[in-house]
Description:
Blueprint: H1 14-32, E1 37-38, H2 39-48, H3 55-67, E2 71-76, E3 83-88, H4 90-116
Antiparallel strand pairs: 1-3, 2-3
Helix pairs in contact: 1-4
Pfam families: PadR (PF03551)
Protein name: PadR family transcriptional regulator
InterPro entries: Metal_resp_DNA-bind_regulator, Tscrpt_reg_PadR_N, WH-like_DNA-bd_sf, WH_DNA-bd_sf
Amino acid sequence: MTHSIVVDMSDGSDLHLQELRRGTVVLACVTLLRRPGYGYGLLEQLADRGFATDANTLYPLLRRLEKQGFLRSEWDTAESRPRKFYRTSDEGMRLAEDMTREWRALSRAIGSLDQEGT
């Protein structure tokens, strides 16, 4: 069972939350695409894991990550409609490892903030 965070965005915190989520979606994409996948399938995988993202956000992100060398893509022409599938490059694997390590360090640091208040 996955959990999604639901927050009342009426207090102006939406920009801060959006900024926080942006990096987590990058990490989720380069991690999930270690196994090749299509954009639509990736949207579903992200949603299933609590990273609700719309296509207007995901597809430009995939193109940007490919341009930066973190993803590779190929066209699958076996079906009636060609589809592009993506996979994480070696450089993308290193990015995922670095981002995961940093995320864990930040998570510990944030956890220590809670402990100081008690």
